[in-house]
Hints:
Layout: H1 3-32, E1 46-50, H2 56-66, E2 75-80, E3 83-89, E4 95-97, H3 104-117
Antiparallel strand pairs: 1-2, 2-3, 3-4
Amino acid sequence: xxxxxxxxxxxxxxxxxxxxxxxxxxxxxxxxxxxxxxxxxxxxxxxxxxxxxxxxxxxxxxxxxxxxxxxxxxxxxxxxxxxxxxxxxxxxxxxxxxxxxxxxxxxxxxxxxxxxxxxxxxx
Length: 123
């Protein structure tokens, strides 16, 4: 066999082994990541504000999604990208949230903000 051909075959086989090894590493690292964990929330466009009369329909929608009663006013509203996703009643501390959005951290922010405002006695 010609020496150049042997070198080319060896290089090709070497590249094939490297490619398989890289693919195997990607596959193994994918298996090590928790599959049930939701992606981290995006806080772009996050707003915490007092709900107004114009937010009644959004609060009703949130309550329906959460299968709960609409919170007693006044309400502190958590809005992400112009969409209300959580609400905290400043009257009794009840929370409603969109069950299809990860809101645990947002609810904690709502409670913290209510405490800063001195409007919320329940935790």
